[in-house]
Design goal:
Structural class: mainly alpha
Radius of gyration: 14 Å
Helix content: over 70%
Largest sheet: none
Number of strands: 0
Order of helices and strands: HHH
Distance between the termini: 25 Å
Shape: flat
Length: 51
Amino acid sequence: MFNRPVADLRATAIEVAGWLCPVTRDWIDGHCRVLPLMVARPGAVINQARR
């Protein structure tokens, strides 16, 4: 999992959802926390190491 292109997989999943239902795609895109978690992850890992 750690060496997977998570952002690319998320983008592909959002695109495929849009093929099926644009409303569902927009809902998923609005509720998906992958990108914010990816941005916050390095800080979270560093903070855990300092405990």
